Amino acid sequence: xxxxxxxxxQHALLAGTAIALAAGLVGYFLVLRAQIFTGDALxxxxxxxAMAALAGGYDLRLGLFAATVGGGLLLGGIGRKGRPDDVAIxxxxxxxxxxxxxxxxxxxTSRSAAQGxxxxxxxxxxxxxxxxxxxxxxxxxxxxxxxxxxxIARPLLFATLDEAVAAARGVPVRALGLGFLALVGxxxxxxTQAVGSLLLLGLLAAPAGAAIxxxxxxxxxxxxxxxxxxxxxWVGLLLSAEVPTLxxxxxxxxxATAVYAATFLVRPARAARQxxxxxxx
Length: 281
What we know:
Helix content is about 80%, strand content about 0%. The chain contains 11 helices and no strands. The protein is globular and about 55 Å long.
């Protein structure tokens, strides 16, 4: 039977496309604002939130989204103008991860061995395990994240490129920064379902990093980041479907890494062509 026609693959493809689209859009601004460390911190927050929910007997998605969105707002709130600094992130980083280990211990010692595998799913994702309801929820949340990000894209870009001038012209820089971090948190919760909390940073950063290397135009790079993320998701899922020994999280991240590495070959060639074009005749 063709794997591509199976419900589990179709659910993964639909949810994965929506998640990748949101990750590509949010990831672009995350890279442009030099807040990659924030994404890394939220990956640990995602693990802790999911484990806390499981230890308490709740749906892990409840803890996942509450922790990542709340964590994003907290980091923005203790930083400058909605931008968390490295000291603020580092102050809570290790403590949050340790708290996750604490909740994992509670969960695994109070549940059966089969249920204890949920911790592995949180760490490495389980996109092939999504059912129809979970897929629909993932698509709706991703659509909301995309819509909100596109709504604030222009003022957020202005505040990112020249914060002082944007503030002088009345752009609510701090509110935009906090709103953006809430979107990063929601996107981190989404991406955890696809590639796991340990690997979600790659889904946020790799397509955006590749897009920024390929074009200097902001909105073209924003669209390219989203397109690359979706393409990498599709290729990763197809690879895992055709080669069952490859976990989907590994295939997705391997594809994203390969695309990013390829830009190091494309960018010098592009720069050389531009340099020749600028030489006087």
